[in-house]
Amino acid sequence: MGFMLSKSMNENMKNQQEFMLMNARLQLERQLLLQNEMRERQMAMQIAWSREFLKYFGTFFGISAISLTARAIKQKKPAFFIPIVPLSFVLAYQYDLGYGTLLQRMKGEAEDILETEKNKLELPKGVITFESLEKARREQSKFFLGK
């Protein structure tokens, strides 16, 4: 009788552990999906911001380029063309970010860094551990409690 009860309890415990493992895996998958969804939304906002900025800056650049060109021709001073050069670099960068391949190139460079320059990604004092967090928490508690 005791053997049957023990066998049943072991089987129930095994089923419980499998359920907990499956539940933990499902929760982790949901967290990963949520994080990826948030990352995608943030990237979409960054691209949208860049495109919106490009509209305003493009208008500013166009008006400035026409005004500076007209002034350079009217006053016969080619120095008025100088501000167009840096402004054109900013315009080209914003266009590349909003509509070009800048993000793909940045992604490729980031992947290369992750593969070949891993040492540059290390945190100062190493990875944060539970023990280091607990030590800092205890120190902070002592500070606030005045002990």
Automatic annotation (TrEMBL):
GO CC annotation, single: plasma membrane
Keyword entries, A-Z: Membrane, Transmembrane, Transmembrane helix
Transmembrane spans: 53-73, 79-97
GO BP term, example: positive regulation of plasminogen activation
A family per Pfam: DUF2368
Domain of life (superkingdom): Eukaryota
Record PANTHER family: PLASMINOGEN RECEPTOR (KT)
Protein name, UniProt field: Plasminogen receptor with a C-terminal lysine
Keyword Amino-acid biosynthesis found: no
